[in-house]
Every structure is written in structure tokens, then in C-alpha cells.
């Protein structure tokens, strides 16, 4: 296994992002349409937060009520803003961080995704799934 592999070699570069003034309905659509679990929240090219699918579910108390899900979900989504629900003060890594360094952060901090930032500009995202896929490739 390569010990100094930069995270830039496994991170997702084609990012799906939200603007801080988007609404939670837009966020929910992105989670569903792209089958993703984490979305960086940006202002221009700068990351200001991270929204996870779990964050969205925390405010959607009617998740399991199928008959009124759409109506209640719409009401809940209009009660909260992305800025209120997202994680602020996000831990980031640079694209030159190694896979090992990122794995250490994800494991010790119990995160599932980290934004990759160079010169204060969001350039990627790395998830636990990216790390697992990398490790599996090393076993072949």
C-alpha cells in the first residue's frame, strides 16, 4: 500500500454543492437525485458548512409517515434554513493531505466526509466510501 498517496487522487472533484441561501427542499432533491449523503454548503467558492442527509432527517420528524410525508416535509423544509441545519466550523483538509492523514481524521473524529480545500477554495470532498474503495483497490 502506498503510504504517501495524496487525497487528491481519490477525492470527488465534480462536486454537488448548495448555496447557503438554497432551501432544504433543494437539498433533499440533491440527496435523492445523486444518491449522496453529504453536500458542502458554499458562498462562492468558499465552504461555509456541510449538510448531511442525517442533518436533514433530524429536522424531518415526519420521515416515516408516508401519507402526509410530502405535505409535512414541505412545511418542515420551509421552517428551517440550510444555515440553521448545516454543520458550521467544518474541519477541512488540503488536497496534499495523505490518505492516511484523512483516514486518521475520519476515524478519530467520527466524521463520514471531509471537504478538501486549497487556498480557501473548495476543490473536492472525500468520504469514508472513497477510502474503502481505495483500500479495496489496494488489496487486488
From TrEMBL:
InterPro entries according to UniProt: CBS_dom, CBS_dom_sf, Diverse_CBS-Domain
Record-annotated CBS domain positions: 11-67, 86-140
Answer yes or no on keyword DNA repair: no
Q: Which UniProt keywords apply?
A: CBS domain
Q: Where do the coiled-coil regions begin and end?
A: none
**Zinc-finger found in the keyword field:** no
PANTHER family the UniProt entry points to: CBS DOMAIN-CONTAINING PROTEIN, CBS DOMAIN-CONTAINING PROTEIN CBSX3, MITOCHONDRIAL
* Name of this protein: CBS domain-containing protein
Species, as recorded: Tenacibaculum geojense
Amino acid at each position: 500500500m502506498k503510504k504517501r498517496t495524496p487525497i487528491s487522487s481519490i477525492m470527488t472533484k465534480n462536486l454537488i454543492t448548495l448555496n447557503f441561501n438554497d432551501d432544504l427542499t433543494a437539498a433533499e432533491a440533491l440527496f435523492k437525485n445523486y444518491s449522496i449523503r453529504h453536500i458542502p454548503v458554499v458562498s462562492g467558492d468558499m465552504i461555509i458548512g456541510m449538510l448531511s442527509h442525517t442533518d436533514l432527517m433530524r429536522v424531518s420528524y415526519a420521515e416515516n409517515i408516508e401519507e402526509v410525508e410530502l405535505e409535512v416535509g414541505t412545511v418542515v423544509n420551509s421552517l428551517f434554513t440550510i444555515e440553521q441545519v448545516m454543520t458550521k466550523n467544518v474541519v477541512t483538509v488540503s488536497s496534499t493531505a495523505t490518505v492516511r492523514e484523512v483516514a486518521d481524521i475520519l476515524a478519530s473524529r467520527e466524521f463520514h466526509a471531509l471537504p478538501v480545500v486549497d487556498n480557501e477554495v473548495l476543490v473536492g470532498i472525500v468520504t469514508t466510501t472513497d477510502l474503502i474503495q481505495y483500500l479495496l483497490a489496494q488489496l487486488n
